[in-house]
Amino acid sequence: MIQLGNSTRGALSRERDVREAYAAHSGELYGFAVRSLGDAGLAEEAVQETFVRAWRAGDRFDPKIGSLRTWLFAILRNVVIDLGRARSVRPRVAEGGVEPSVEPLDEALTAWQVEEAMRRIGEDHRRVIVETYYRGRPYAEVAAELGVPEGTVKSRVYYGLRALRVVLEEMGYED
Amino acid sequence: MKTRNDCREWRELLGAYALGHLEGDERAGLEAHLDGCANCREELASLQPVALMLPHADPARFGPAPQPPPELGQRVAATIAAERERSETRQRRRLFGGFALGGATVAAVAAVLLLFVFGGGDGSSGPEQQVRFADLPPGITIDATLQPHSYGTEIHMYVHGVPSGTLCRVWLRGAGGASYPAGTFRYRWGDDSDAVLSSALDLSRTRAVVVDTGKRTFVAPVDGPVADLNIHNEEEPT
Known about the structure:
- The structure holds two protein chains of two kinds.
- By secondary structure, chain A is an all-alpha fold.
- Chain A folds into two domains: 1-103, RNA polymerase sigma factor, region 2, helix turn helix motif (Rna Polymerase Sigma Factor, Chain: A); 121-175, Arc Repressor Mutant, subunit A (Orthogonal Bundle).
- Chain A contains seven helices and no strands.
- Chain A has helices spanning 15-37, 40-56, 68-89, 105-120, 123-134, 139-146, 150-170.
- The two termini of chain A are 19 Å apart.
- Chain B folds into two domains: 7-61, Arc Repressor Mutant, subunit A (Orthogonal Bundle); 71-221, no CATH class.
- Chain B is α+β, with helices and mostly antiparallel strands.
- In chain B, a hairpin with an 8-residue loop joins β2 (128-132) and β3.
- The termini of chain B are far apart.
- Chain B has helices at residues 7-11, 14-18, 24-36, 38-53, 70-96, 103-108; strands at residues 114-117, 128-132, 141-149, 152-160, 166-174, 179-187, 195-199, 206-212, 217-221.
């Protein structure tokens, strides 16, 4: 979480603070918006609306209650829901529009968090999890391909899951 | 075969175990170890939520994440600056009592009023256009100011008189009849600031502003520099 000045309340009420928050969190927010809306243009709209709403409600942000990142994601979640509803009631789909994701939003958020965490862990750990879990390949086969003992593949799976847990905690995920 | 005291080696099997990949003697040996090792049980418990999350992810999306375009940050900053400016301007107007129109006054306005105000120095790329929704129910006021930009149209929405907390959805309708989303906002009693929204549709191609307040949909035409005296407000079925 980034530090925003010395104040403990209303930390997002200044435009400069919004710029700092944007620099720190816009990438993640945009990534999730693209993931859930399936459209880069709508994702840009969602991120913009998120920061505008955050600025309007900046006085209500209290870092003692939760991190800025968590607060921004909660706003984005509402924005994505509103955009989804707007899309469902609007008369015609604009040119270049895409169908809304059929994935429930909370599930999309979980999915995006795992995918983002996977991007952040080491390549060795990611690879063994992909090969053994997602592709369902036998450990012996993966070990032969990588030129390491089978026990090493198993320990990499263990340290990979540990790394995922640490990254998810850093990202603010609470199970 | 590992001994029961060889905790580290057993622990390194916990990942495969949490994923349901251990079988036979290895699985039985680890389970026997877990029976007697609180530390490994605790470690397994910390990995299980992660293992349960894995099925949600799509491995095809593990590549580089999309990044927002560089200009988005500038747009966010400009939108917030414009909203603050508009809010301050509106407060000044209200202080001097010249701009606010009551519901009865608005109801008496029998035409959509188009005013052209030549803006300057704020990054806009042409004259802004003020659109007022006519024939509204008593007590409700809606107006919009449209500002052309290179990226599309900036919309300043002012709503007054609907229930507090009402979710308002806004679209711009293009020349071809398609509607382009411009965003959403909530109306709150006591907050007379504008909601600042944007759409990719150029102002020159915008033919109407559509506002949906949940129960009712209001449409005001945007027909260019000549005032359109036809009333186009319409109510759509809910």
